[in-house]
């Protein structure tokens, strides 16, 4: 059965998360944007989201989540020898957010870098960390998904600004020790239509200028309808291919932790995969779409709710700008 029986899988030794304390519900948002609780709830399932304040950056959220994961794993920062942060909202273009939290956490001078695969970023980072740990050159990895999406939200675009929130989640991975085992990975991307979901300005193609600011190019832009259709299609394929490659089927899955973008996307995925909606863990009603943070944030909450029983099979599945997609199987 694929890597489950052949490899010694990496284990999740600890999980942690953090969201900012500033909670904005749909009614509060409607004071600033021409929208309503009814529209947002029926179109997306989102009821509220958390926003960082002006002084807080992505690394501050990542630091808190990482600290909580270290505490959960009961290990010291000195035990970490690899840091990977998935984010599309780094504190700055460079240095990486991983380097910033390495210093903040007091972790020794270890390999640290960021991964940018949008909402699939955390699962991409898990895949990379798994491979690096299995190379034998690293022992314990800190893998974080963290975002301050409020820093790239366009308040003049009501079709996008109602969807997103800020937050962070983190796990400690190791080949040694006990914990849920990562037993399968599937990542992919289709870069043929990048403008479906992008932040056009601020890179080498369109550096910051008066023109880029006037064009509101430093904000996230999205073709919502097309993203919706692609999301369901690529997540179904990513999940199905991975299950088949491990000799498993949808019936074997006990829990699905999907990227938390939209309740209607989750419902469509449930129908297509023929996995009952009750098996999907969702907290997007409280946090909105937190991109790379959404899956570790959900994983942490589900674990704290004692949802996972030993021996059960979990499926994490995501899609994001790129388009990127990823699925990961975990045996609890
Ligand atoms: N409040 C009130 N009305 C609104 C709002 C709003 N916030 N936004 C749009 N509308 C209006 C539109 O103006 C339009 O009005 P009209 O019919 O008079 O022209 C109407 O609502 C319908 O607008 P649509 O854009 O067609 O709405 P749709 O049903 O497609 O829903 C949505 C929009 C929720 C964005 C949907 O397309 C969607 O969920 N797409 C997927 C987005 C997603 O999940 N992205 C996650 C990826 S993010 C990542 O990877 C980083």
Summary, kept brief:
The chain has helices at 2-6, 26-30, 37-44, 58-73, 97-105, 121-134, 158-161, 210-214, 224-245, 263-273, 284-287, 294-304; strands at residues 10-18, 22-25, 48-51, 82-86, 111-115, 140-148, 166-174, 181-189, 197-198, 221-222, 255-258, 313-320, 324-331. By secondary structure, the protein is an alpha+beta fold.
Description of the molecule:
The protein is α+β, with helices and mostly antiparallel strands and 332 residues long. It folds into two domains: 178 residues, 3-Layer(aba) Sandwich (Peroxisomal Thiolase, Chain A, domain 1); 149 residues, Peroxisomal Thiolase, Chain A, domain 1 (3-Layer(aba) Sandwich). Helices cover 34% and strands 23% of the residues. The chain contains twelve helices and 13 strands. The strands form three sheets. It has a nine-stranded mixed beta sheet with strand order 5-4-6-7-1-8-13-12-11, sandwiched between helices. A two-stranded antiparallel sheet has the order 2-3. Strand 12 and strand 13 form a beta hairpin. It is globular. The two termini are 17 Å apart. The N terminus is likely disordered. The site of acetyl coenzyme *A has 21 residues, from helix 3, helix 7 and helix 9.
């Amino acid at each position: 059965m694929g890597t489950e029986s052949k490899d010694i899988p990496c284990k999740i030794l600890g999980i942690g998360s953090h969201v900012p304390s500033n909670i904005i519900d749909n009614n509060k948002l409607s004071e600033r944007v021409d929208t309503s609780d009814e529209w947002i709830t029926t179109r997306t399932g989102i009821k509220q989201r958390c926003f960082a304040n002006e002084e807080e950056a992505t690394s501050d959220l990542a630091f808190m989540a990482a600290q909580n994961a270290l505490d959960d794993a009961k290990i010291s920062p000195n035990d970490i020898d690899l840091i990977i942060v998935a984010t599309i909202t780094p504190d700055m273009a460079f240095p990486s957010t991983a380097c910033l939290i390495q210093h903040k956490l007091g972790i020794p001078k270890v390999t640290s870098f960021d991964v940018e695969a949008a909402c699939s970023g955390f699962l991409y980072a898990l895949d990379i960390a798994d491979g690096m740990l299995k190379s034998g050159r690293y022992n314990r990895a800190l893998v974080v998904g963290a975002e301050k999406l409020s820093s790239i939200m366009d308040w003049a675009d009501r079709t996008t600004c109602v969807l997103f929130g800020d937050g962070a989640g983190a796990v400690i991975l190791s080949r040694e020790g006990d914990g849920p085992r990562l037993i399968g990975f599937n990542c992919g991307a289709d870069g043929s239509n990048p403008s479906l979901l992008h932040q056009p300005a601020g890179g080498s193609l369109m550096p910051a200028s008066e023109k880029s600011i006037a064009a509101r190019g430093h904000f996230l832009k999205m073709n919502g309808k097309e993203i919706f259709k692609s999301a369901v299609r690529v997540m179904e394929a990513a999940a199905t291919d991975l299950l088949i490659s491990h000799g498993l089927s949808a019936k074997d899955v006990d829990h699905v932790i999907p990227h938390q973008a939209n309740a209607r996307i989750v419902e469509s995925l449930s129908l297509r995969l023929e996995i009952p909606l009750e098996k999907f863990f969702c907290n997007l009603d409280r946090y909105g779409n937190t991109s790379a943070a959404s899956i570790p944030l959900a994983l942490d909450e589900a674990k704290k709710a004692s949802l996972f029983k030993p021996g059960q099979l979990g499926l994490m599945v995501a899609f994001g700008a790129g388009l990127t997609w990823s699925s990961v199987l975990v045996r609890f």
